[in-house]
Each structure stands twice: as structure tokens, then as C-alpha cells.
Write a structure and sequence with these properties.
Layout: H1 2-13, E1 17-21, H2 24-34, E2 39-42, H3 46-50, H4 53-58, E3 62-64, H5 75-82, E4 87-90, E5 94-96, E6 101-105, H6 109-113, E7 120-126, E8 130-131, H7 134-152, H8 158-162, E9 178-182, E10 190-196
Parallel strand pairs: 1-10, 2-3, 2-4, 4-7, 5-8, 7-10
Antiparallel strand pairs: 5-6, 6-9
């Protein structure tokens, strides 16, 4: 608990709003109540998928999610719509105890949506992604999360096939083309880190 509280205080010093829940179901209920009558964009997230957030929020918001795109609409078409919404939700690949937030992206829609243009961004993330230092958080994003996400998408990248580490490959389906470190909350936008004690995501 002491480690958890230190991390929360580090996030608050970096000007993030922070909420904490024991389970994904509790976090989903919170977000369902907090986001109403909005346009909502989703970044690809195994954590949010496991929480059933799309169905809950789509019941009373207009939600754009490339993983739930309308028939006949391309990934790119839906992903562009997520960048123009009131609210954007995504997860994180890793976090440091000192309060830095780390994401890796191959196409760019997840990290782009987390940086600019929305009224509010929610980072929905479980505490199993918390690392002692920024260097260790970057290592986790590249060598733990990226290989697992590559495998989840069925890509034939070396990291997915071997499942052990980043090979800094040149594969066409490489998913780590950009590494983003949020050192502090972006100016002109609300940002909330929704922490979950239950282990979710990759």
C-alpha cells in the first residue's frame, strides 16, 4: 500500500487526476457514470476490452472504436474519428513509480489520441504495469507488452514468434514505431489515470 500511495502522489504532483479501484468492474461502473452524452474515442486496449467498456459506454454515448468499427469502414476511417471526440480512453504499456506514463504504438492512433484535442483523456490501467523506474517502464513496454500485443494481433514479428523480447525489427507489422513518455499532464486538457488493482491487460 505504501508503494501504491507514493505512486498516486507522484501522479498528483504531475497534475493528473487519479482514481483507484479494486476491480475492473468497479472501474467500468465509475467510467460509465462519469462519461455521459459525449462523443468517445477508444485506443486499442486489452484492458478496456476485458472490462466491457465499449458496450457500456455505447449505450448512452457515441463511441468510436477501431476494434468495433461499422461494417465497411476501415481501421483508418474509424481511428480518425476517435481523434475528434470529446473524450478519449486508452490504456498504458507501463508506468514508473515516479509518475511517468509509457506507451508504444505502431499506427499512432492510440498515442495521438492521448496527446491533444479532447476535453478529457482517461488512462485506464492496472497496477501490474507499475515499474520502479522510467528505464524499467520503457523496458517493460518494449520487451513485455509489445511482444504480447504482437502475438495477440496474430502478427509474425520476431518478438511475437519468439515471445521473449524486442528485436528492433523492420517487419511490416511492427507495433513499436513510436515510444511516448508522458512526463506530466499535457496543457489545456484534463487527464485522469484510472488505476485498477486487479491484474488486467498485457
Amino acid at each position: 500500500m505504501e508503494r501504491e500511495e507514493r505512486f498516486i502522489q507522484a501522479l498528483i504532483r504531475r497534475r493528473y487526476e487519479v482514481s483507484l479501484f479494486d476491480t475492473g468492474a468497479q472501474a467500468a461502473a465509475y467510467l460509465d457514470g462519469a462519461i455521459d452524452g459525449k462523443t468517445v474515442g477508444f485506443g486499442d486496449s486489452e484492458t478496456m476490452l476485458s472490462m466491457g467498456l465499449y458496450d457500456r459506454l455505447a449505450a448512452h454515448n457515441q463511441v468510436f472504436d477501431p476494434m468495433h468499427r461499422p461494417e465497411g469502414e476501415t481501421f483508418r476511417e474509424t481511428a480518425r474519428k476517435t481523434l475528434l471526440t470529446d473524450v478519449f480512453l486508452t490504456s498504458l504499456n507501463a508506468m514508473s513509480e515516479t509518475g511517468e506514463l509509457v506507451n508504444i504504438d505502431g499506427t499512432g492512433n492510440r498515442v495521438a489520441g492521448s496527446l491533444f484535442g479532447h476535453e478529457k483523456v482517461y488512462f485506464v490501467v492496472s497496477l501490474n504495469k507499475l515499474c520502479p523506474t522510467l528505464d524499467e517502464a520503457i523496458y517493460r513496454a518494449r520487451n513485455v507488452a509489445a511482444p504480447q500485443n504482437s502475438a495477440r494481433h496474430g502478427f509474425s514479428n520476431p518478438c511475437a514468434l519468439k515471445g521473449d523480447r524486442c528485436y528492433d525489427c523492420s517487419a511490416k507489422d511492427r507495433i513499436c514505431n513510436a515510444l511516448i513518455v508522458h512526463y506530466r499532464k499535457m496543457r489545456g486538457i484534463q487527464m485522469e489515470v484510472v488505476l485498477i488493482r486487479e491484474e488486467l491487460g498485457l
